[in-house]
Design goal:
- With 183 residues, the protein is mainly α.
- 70% of the residues lie in helices and 0% in strands.
- It has 6 helices and no strands.
- The N and C termini lie close together (7 Å).
């Protein structure tokens, strides 16, 4: 993505760390949590790759098209799952945003914006969606009461901690807002 190196590296670190944690969540005993964690790990690592500063690594011209195709396939998979779960609808919006950013980067890899006409409508809509998602997710992280033990020996497993999964999704939402602001 475009922008200065320091925030880009912070974005790479945030997205990569989120991806790593999502890989750890894939060890959950609940199949739906494992599938969701796999998709989120893919998104985290994909976002980390896209956020690497252009001064360090400028991908070849075909790479943005490859990103778009890869996230397009992921969007089709999320579309199929979106009929049954609200989380998958959010994942669908995220993959569509990744496809959109890939297309923008493929079309105009050297420019910071789409001309002098202001923010394009799709960018604005995605910014509104992800900003709302970040604000709502942040509110949901505020503890409502005392935490309960799941009854498993030693407490809740890392892959089954819902507050950490929400924090992971919040981190990726923040990263998505930052990436959308830079295109």
């Amino acid at each position: 993505m475009h922008g200065s190196a320091s925030p880009s590296w912070l974005l790479v670190a945030l997205c990569a760390a989120t991806g790593v944690y999502c890989l750890l969540r894939m060890r959950s005993s609940v199949e739906e949590q494992r599938r969701a964690a796999g998709g989120e790990a893919f998104m985290g690592f994909g976002m980390a790759a896209m956020a690497v500063p252009a001064a360090v690594f400028t991908p070849p011209a075909w790479a943005w098209s490859a990103y778009g195709a890869l996230f397009g396939v992921t969007a089709l998979r999320a579309l199929r799952s979106a009929r049954t779960s609200p989380h998958h609808r959010h994942h669908l919006v995220g993959t569509v945003a990744m496809v959109y950013m890939s297309v923008v980067m493929a079309v105009s890899p050297g420019s910071h914006h789409h001309g002098g006409a202001g923010v394009p409508p799709l960018t604005g809509a995605l910014l509104l969606y992800f900003t709302g998602y970040v604000l709502l997710s942040g509110v949901r992280l505020v503890p409502a009461g005392a935490a309960t033990d799941s009854g498993t020996p030693g407490g809740t497993a890392w892959g089954d901690r819902p507050e950490l999964a929400r924090a992971c999704r919040l981190s990726m939402g923040i990263a998505m807002v930052a990436m959308l602001l830079t295109i």
